[in-house]
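Hi there,

I know you've been waiting on this one. I reran it after we fixed the sequence typo, so this is the corrected version. Both the input and the resulting structure follow.
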Amino acid sequence: MKSIVINHATVHERADMSTFLHLCAKRAVKSVSIWGKEIDKIGEVVALAALREHGITVFWLQSH
């Protein structure tokens, strides 16, 4: 199967970043696009830990 990238902006109104990353990992999505404003909500340390915990890489980071 080819790689797929999910953009958090698609679901940010229904899932915070931690939930989004957990759901991506649960569905074997290994690359995401994320937004700086969403990282700010949970903090950089928590966001980075969640990415590492789930083995997810960032395809694209949109600054604020």
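Quick highlight: The chain has one domain: 5-62.

Best,
R. S.
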